[in-house]
Design brief:
Helix 3 runs antiparallel to helix 4. The chain is globular. The longest helix has about 30 residues. The chain folds into 2 domains: about 90 residues, no CATH class; about 140 residues, no CATH class. By secondary structure, it is mainly alpha-helical. The protein starts with a helix and ends in a 6-residue tail after the last helix. The chain is built from 10 helices and no strands.
Length: about 270
């Protein structure tokens, strides 16, 4: 009778359940093969950039969609749209508009109620949106002031189309994939198993590592230390924003604003 009155609670799903391993292996193989062909001069150097964007951001976004239990086709479409956008961006600044493709695809899935597990397609409290915007503005202002004072790097927009192209890349690839995976998927899944602090620490640590291995990040010691500082703050706060509002939108907004400010710096 006690067993009937006190049913055993369901076991938490494995942390890496539903990971699309076959797709991730295909992306890794494609990137490695492209790298070899570029080294052999069989492909132009630009092909390596396209393969890197497709494999890196595609892996994060496809895994997030799979963890949200969306059909595997949705992940493949997201990867294809990222590859198309990365290729189109090489044709000029206007080509970067193709990065709206992955963003619109995720928006469409969210509108159909298929991404609620990631915190998308759910009611977004206005207070959460405003808080996300304030976080992005606050971190951006601190970044611009501290970098100008310590490294002598000032806001400099040599080419407006280039900056807009970089922001388009952030909206449709960089920020979108990172927030969907590290916050919407990894943090959300981890917090159902452990405490908020443990889940946020795991998500933020993985988030920082993702950028430290990014070949596009400047590698001077000062810039790496600064990147770790700001990305740790941004990652931790975005975990809190998701936990507080139950929506991924505030974190997406704060990250887009922060990276838009970063793109105006001379070394970006």
């Amino acid at each position: 009778m006690w067993a009937l009155d006190q049913p055993c609670p369901p076991r938490a799903e494995r942390l890496f359940a539903d990971t699309p391993w076959a797709l991730l292996a295909a992306l890794a193989l494609g990137a490695a093969s492209t790298g070899v062909l570029v080294e052999l001069a069989a492909l132009p150097p630009r092909a390596w950039h396209v393969a890197g964007v497709t494999a890196g951001h595609g892996a994060l976004l496809a895994t997030a969609l799979a963890w949200a239990r969306v059909s595997s086709t949705a992940g493949v479409v997201a990867v294809a749209l990222l590859a198309l956008a990365a290729a189109a961006a090489g044709l000029g600044a206007l080509g970067a508009l193709a990065y709206l493709g992955p963003a619109l695809w995720v928006l469409w899935l969210a509108g159909r109620g298929r991404l609620t597990a990631l915190g998308l397609g759910v009611p977004v409290p206005l207070r959460g949106v405003l808080t996300g915007a304030l976080v992005g503005v606050g971190l951006s202002c601190h970044l611009l002031v501290s970098v100008s004072r310590t490294l002598g790097v000032h806001v400099r927009v040599d080419s407006v189309p280039a900056v807009l192209a970089a922001v388009g890349y952030d909206v449709g690839a960089n920020v979108l994939a990172a927030e969907c995976f590290f916050r919407g998927a990894l943090f959300n899944r981890a917090q159902r198993r452990w405490s908020f602090a443990a889940a946020a620490s795991l998500s933020t640590a993985a988030y920082v590592v993702r950028y430290l291995v990014d070949p596009l990040l400047p590698k001077s010691v000062e810039l790496v230390v600064g990147a770790v500082f700001y990305l740790t703050l941004l990652g931790g706060i975005n975990c809190w924003l998701l936990w507080r509002s139950e929506s991924l939108v505030p974190g997406l907004l704060s990250a887009v604003i922060f990276f838009a400010a970063y793109r105006t710096l001379g070394f970006a």
